[in-house]
UniProtKB/TrEMBL annotation:
<dbReference type="Pfam" id="PF01408">
    <property type="entry name" value="GFO_IDH_MocA"/>
</dbReference>
<feature type="domain" description="GFO/IDH/MocA-like oxidoreductase">
    <location>
        <begin position="191"/>
        <end position="305"/>
    </location>
</feature>
<dbReference type="InterPro" id="IPR036291">
    <property type="entry name" value="NAD(P)-bd_dom_sf"/>
</dbReference>
<dbReference type="InterPro" id="IPR055170">
    <property type="entry name" value="GFO_IDH_MocA-like_dom"/>
</dbReference>
<dbReference type="InterPro" id="IPR000683">
    <property type="entry name" value="Gfo/Idh/MocA-like_OxRdtase_N"/>
</dbReference>
<dbReference type="InterPro" id="IPR050463">
    <property type="entry name" value="Gfo/Idh/MocA_oxidrdct_glycsds"/>
</dbReference>
<dbReference type="InterPro" id="IPR006311">
    <property type="entry name" value="TAT_signal"/>
</dbReference>
<protein>
    <submittedName>
        <fullName>Gfo/Idh/MocA family oxidoreductase</fullName>
    </submittedName>
</protein>
<feature type="domain" description="Gfo/Idh/MocA-like oxidoreductase N-terminal">
    <location>
        <begin position="44"/>
        <end position="169"/>
    </location>
</feature>
<dbReference type="Pfam" id="PF22725">
    <property type="entry name" value="GFO_IDH_MocA_C3"/>
</dbReference>
Amino acid sequence: MEQKKNNLTRRSFVKGSSLAAGGIILTPSLLTATPIFNKVKKLKLAVVGCGGRGTGAVSQALKADENVELVAMADAFEDRLEKAYTSLTKMFQTGKLNVKASHKFVGFGSYKKAIDAADVVILTTPPGFRPKHFEYAISQGKHVFMEKPVATDVAGIKKVLEAAKAAKAKNLNVVVGLQRHYQASYIETYNRIKKGDIGQIVSGQVYWNGSGVWVRPRKANQTEMEYQMRNWYYFNWICGDHILEQHIHNIDVANWFIGGYPIKATGTGGREVRKGKDHGHIFDHHVVEFEYENGAIISSQCRHQPGTKHRVDESFQGTLGTSYNHGGSTAVLKKYDGTKIYNHNSEDDINPYQQEHNRLFKSIRNGEVINDAEFGAKSTMTAIMGRMATYSGKEITWDKAMALDHKLVPDEDTLTFDSVPPIVPDENGNYPVPVPGKTNFI
């Protein structure tokens, strides 16, 4: 923590941040070098990461524009790629899918060939690999949809921020899968908060509490690298822990509505019920307090514990009233005397997962620019800071966290399934778990 700070202080990091709804920058095409793709030109699409989210994102992209076709796919595992391809062939007629056998790329490093083949790329691998894939896509002049979180370590955050600058300079569209920025109830709430309907936010509570996600047990003859890649949710270098992989949605809403990023975080967490060998070394609960420069305090909770209360929502208290949002399109703003200011009617809402792609392709066609990469990186960094606080039990400041030489992910281009992962089990098959008070930053 006593390392010399680099130039990425929190204040310089926040300054100039794009925190408006969706982080959208509309740039008239005549003032940019961005080509306008007319309505009849076929846009070539590639997907890197063919799991469930990748398959879903491809489906939404193909529905978003009548003249887009999938031409390339890449994944570390051939079986996962083929499963995704089979699922997509059942959803779409020939003409939307034009993936030749030679454009199905498998293994570490396969992302480059898929990206090279397309105009627009979908990046939906486990998040540890996202920074390198995003950097390459932007270097090749591609428009991007990438899932959240955008990194698992500080080194990855810095890489994404640099690529975000390059994307802006090239007028490339970047949409990040923080879909609440494309959801009508959240956009309306944000606009009303910005207008002053509940005054300045002074406190809030954000939650992603549930029973947890899938587990993929170890199979015979798997190398340690293959096992961790298959069971990626439970290893920080690939996943980042569920405070990043899920709870980032709620943390991002706090940043968006407040209009800034926290200056420090304190927290607690651990493993109470999910602590088997197949659960790697991540926590099953995190509780964090984030303090913002304007004095606002946000209480953050996420939990993966079966049989406990499920809650995924955000509440904020302002100087004049309160707001409440639920991911299922509920939004209510009211004064402290109980008078309702706004109650969202979700009957005509477009699915925000679909709307992300609708906006992306419309922007590409019109020669406009959306760039979500900056706020996507900063909200990811907020969650990383929360994880550092829960793992260490220490107060973590933004500036000191950003100054750390914090790198979890090896260079993908050097990996094989025989490579040794960054973390390995002991002789009993158990992984080292962070211990607050003893663990530094992981």
